[in-house]
Amino acid sequence: MGKKRVLVPAKDVDLSLVQYVPETVQAPHLTGFGFRLLVRLIEAPLIGPILMNYLKKENKIDELLRNTVIPEEPMFKPEYPPQEKEHGVVELDEDGRPEDRVESALNCLPHYDPAELWESSSASFRYWKIRDYAYAYRSRKVTPSMVAERMISIIEENGIDKPPTPLLITFDAAEVRKQAAESTLRFEAGNPLSILDGIFIAIKDDIDCLPHSSKGGSTWLHEVRAVKKDAVSVSRLRSCGVIFIGKANMHEFGMGTTGNNPNYGTARNPHAPDRYTGGSSSGPAAIVASGLCSAALGTDGGGSVRIPSSLCGVVGLKINYGRSSMEGSLCDSGTVEVIGPIASSVEDAMLVYAAMLGSSSATRISMKPSTPCLPTLSFDDDTNALGSLRIGKYTPWFNNVHSTEVSDKCEDALNLLSKAHGCEVIEVVIPEIMEMRTAHVVSIGSECLCSLNPDCEEGKDAKLTYDTRTSLALFRSFTAADYVAAQCIRRRNMHYFMEIFKKVDVIVTPTTGMTAPIIPPSALKSGETDMQTTGYLMRFVVPANLLGFPAISVPVGYDKKGLPIGLQIIGRPWAEATVLRVAFAVEKLCGESKKRPVSFYDVLRAN
After folding, report:
1. How far, CA to CA in Å, does 93 sit from each of 34, 103, 104, 485?
2. Is the peptide bond before 82 cis (omega within 30 degrees of 0)?
3. Which of 214, 233, 280, 290 is catalytic?
4. DSSP for residue 280
5. pLDDT higher for 416 or 378?
6. Is 605 helix (H, G, I), strand (E, B) or coil?
7. 409 included as an active-site residue
8. Burial status of residue 521 (CB atoms within 10 A of its CB: 0-12, 13-18, 19 or more)
9. Which of 194, 281, 304, 477 is catalytic?
């Protein structure tokens, strides 16, 4: 008795009384035999539910979902009021040709002379941009086929047992050579399809890309699900001349934040091969950070593009929910997940985003998305647009990190932005962050379980990793009432954030609460459960998934160990252009002293 809690309507919450509650996760960190034993116990008919109920009680999940009266009605997917048009932008035709959108994106970029940098003898490290590749191809300094051979040699030389591989789950050298030869012929004829022609891109293993199967990082999904055509996002990139190198490694079915995968081996962080890349888009981020590809496609349902991008020192764009079609991905019917680009620079992420965007017909009816736009970074008014920018920061949340090196470096980036452009930093208050996190895990967990249940009922769950089985045990403990309560919390959180966005244009946080964690050797064979680390990695990413907002992770420096730190920029609904503009400015201010990863390959110049 006396457990019931009654929430006042979100619109009546007094923000002056809101106290930030530091998030703590109560769960054991286990690997090896102890982890395998735990999984057996939580799957056992009698003791399993007791253990799971205990863990949920310790983390106040039932208190938030079952003992609380929530006055709001449920919001089963993001809903937004009409949005004001962004300033200093170019509108894109989402029904037009992807090549034309990429050309429009190219025209938005500032002047850049690849020839000057190609001849430069500067000792400072930098990633080659897509524009560098295009220059090298068009000036015949190198061909896509030459780059393909260098890449194939590197991939084949690094066997599955040698860090930083395995970056790819599926790889076909003959298919890569075929695509590269076709691109080379187009350049020889003087008819490249777009600036993306001949650009090598990796595709996460939960996005369809012919002729490869999609396994979702598992050992068996390809046995029950055939790939008959490219995912829509992949098809759009293919029409621009992109060369796909294969299917990139990932945390099995995206159910983890480290990238651990005992099925194919765990991808290693190019900056420190004894550390995780972050996940679940582990392979895509590591491939880009190691220099093998200019960009990759990942999926982001709980930070899975932004977390590995931050830990690997690259750029990860989480687009607005519904901005691009999810058809042809394993998560095509969820309410929190999107496909997004990972790239070595903001401008390259912008070029790939321009090609792949375009809402489905169902989304256009249900969500009425604003016209997709890109920032005009090539024009002088970019500085004026930044000068009027209002940046929201919730300081207690911002500073709740594993090491102050993370928050300090992100604070430095904010100060540089304000000093250079006159941006105003405004303190905001975000209520019920713990409730939001709970609503997210119930939402994404229920959607994952719904997707996998038919195959699990046929016995495939025995072939899942212990990590995935642990997640599914938790997800099975959620009830229909829990799911509805989570959607009521979603509406409350949406109200809070939309009120904040009346005062600010973006909200900034560290991308993750820690830098790349060490891989326990005992976790390589059977995986691990480490919810404290998951808590730090996911601390700041949840709002963009539960509420659908666009967000980006951009590198802002390194900790004392030389591990990358990322700053997250969260935008208003459909405001990818503003997010990209701010990220571009941050990159320019913080990206001059990039550190060469320990595992890096220059496939363009090969010297």
Report:
1. 54, 12, 10, 38
2. no
3. 280
4. S
5. 416
6. coil
7. no
8. exposed
9. 304
What is the phi-psi region of residue 89: left when phi exceeds 0, alpha when psi lies from -120 to 50, beta otherwise? beta
Work out the pLDDT band at 163, boundaries 50, 70, 90.
very low
Active-site residue among 56, 129, 204, 215?
204
Q: In what order do the strands lie in the sheet with 295-300?
A: 168-170, 243-248, 200-204, 295-300, 338-343, 315-318, 551-558, 564-571, 506-510, 390-393, 424-427
Paired residues of 421 in beta bridges:
none
pLDDT bucket at 10, cuts 50 / 70 / 90: very high
With 0.85 as the threshold, say if the pTM is over it.
yes
pLDDT band at 159 (very low <50, low <70, confident <90, very high): low
Catalytic: 280? yes
Residue 117: the pLDDT is 86
Those residues with Cβ within 8 angstroms of residue 276's Cβ, 6 or more apart along the chain or in another chain:
258, 259, 260, 266, 268, 269, 282, 311, 516, 517, 518, 519
Rounded average pLDDT over 4-29: 95
Element of type H or E holding 246: strand 243-248
Contact 317, 552 (CB under 8 A): yes
pLDDT band for 523, please (50, 70, 90 cuts).
very high
Of 198, 205, 217, the C-alpha closest to 246 is 205
Q: How far, CA to CA in Å, does 246 sit from each of 153, 212, 266, 535?
A: 14, 7, 17, 31
Mapping DSSP to helix (H, G, I), strand (E, B) and coil, where does residue 250 land?
coil
Grouping H, G, I as helix, E, B as strand and the rest as coil, residue 567 is strand
Judge residue 107's burial from the number of C-beta atoms within 10 Å of its C-beta, 0-12 exposed, 13-18 middle, 19 or more buried.
Answer: exposed
To the query of whether residue 525 is one of the catalytic residues in this protein, the response is no
Least confident of 26-40, 162-176, 396-410, 424-438: 162-176
For residue 380, the model assigns a pLDDT of: 58
Closest-CA residue to 353 (of 303, 307, 316, 306) = 316
